[in-house]
Amino acid sequence: MRIAAMVFGLLGSLAAIVNVISAVSQSIASSGPAPKGEPAVLAAIGVMLAIIVIICLMGLLGALFARTRPGVATVLMLLSGVLGFLMQVPGFVYAGPLFVIGAILAFVGRGQRKRTPAPTSR
């Protein structure tokens, strides 16, 4: 379960980063030249982009923690998926469900321990 959670989290991170970069480049290309005298608008766009990148990295970090710390991975991936939906980020249409599925799998797999072979006595 933990490996599946890690895979879903990594796929969600990849989908989020690719779709966010695509959406940002598309919006920059379609907006034309930057408006002069509008630094507040540009600053707001920069802040939103920074928040989106932080959310993507939070999901990636959750995916990387899926094998060693599944409880932390559950919280990080679930927060990343939900915050991406709440911020209405275009890239989280695909990434959000992957993060949520990864969080559920990490939560279910948190009780699993590594199986060690029983010592054999001779």
How would you sum up this structure in a few lines?
By secondary structure, this protein is mainly α.
Structure, described:
By secondary structure, the protein is mainly α. It has one domain (2-27, 43-108). Helix content is 74%, strand content 0%. The chain contains 4 helices and no strands. Helix 1 runs antiparallel to helix 4. The longest helix is centred in the N-terminal third of the chain and has 30 residues, at 2-31. The protein is elongated, with a radius of gyration of 19 Å.
Q: Helical residue percent?
A: over 70%
Low-confidence runs:
none
Range of strand content = under 5%
Largest sheet: none
Note the gap between the termini: 35 Å
Anisotropy-based shape: elongated
Spell out the helices and strands N to C: HHHH
Number of domains: 1
- Would you count the extended β strands for me? 0
Write the layout of secondary structure elements.
Blueprint lengths: L1 H30 L7 H26 L5 H17 L5 H17 L14
Helix pairs in contact: 1-2, 1-4, 2-3, 3-4
Notable traits:
122 residues, mainly alpha
